[in-house]
Amino acid sequence: MIKNPPTNPVFLLLFLLFKIIPLTMAQNTTIFPIDVGVVVDLDTRFGKMGLTCINMALSDFYASHAHYNTRLVLHTRNSTGDVVVAAACR
After folding, report:
1. Which UniProt keywords apply (predicted)?
2. N vs C: which end of the chain shows fewer Cβ within 10 Å?
3. Other beta carbons within 10 Å of 56
């Protein structure tokens, strides 16, 4: 007959505490927005597709990395095919 060694109740209590404490800690849900300017020619199909790809990439990234506190906020401007307008966007 194999005898089980006695379980130390202090060890058991510490083990349970270290398993439960991370579950009860408050999560920091403060979001820090990061403003990013995007200048594309929205009059062309390529510009619309590029902006759509950027938005999908951001959406996919934050779907798989929800624990990140920073969020990119896109500010889009239409360059209307004019490089001077694109350079002057703020």
Report:
1. Signal
2. N
3. 10
**pLDDT digits over 1-50, tens only?**
667 666 677 777 777 777 777 666 666 678 899 999 999 999 999 999 99
Sequence-distant (≥ 6) Cβ neighbours of residue 72 within 8 angstroms: 33, 34, 36, 58
- Cα dist. 54→16, 19, 28, 38, 40 in Å? 45, 40, 27, 9, 11
DSSP letters for 30-85: --EEEEEEEEE-TTSHHHHHHHHHHHHHHHHHHHH-TT--EEEEEEEEE-TT-HHH
Quote the CA–CA distance of 43 and 49 in Å, as a whole number.
Answer: 11
Domain ranges across the chain: 28-88
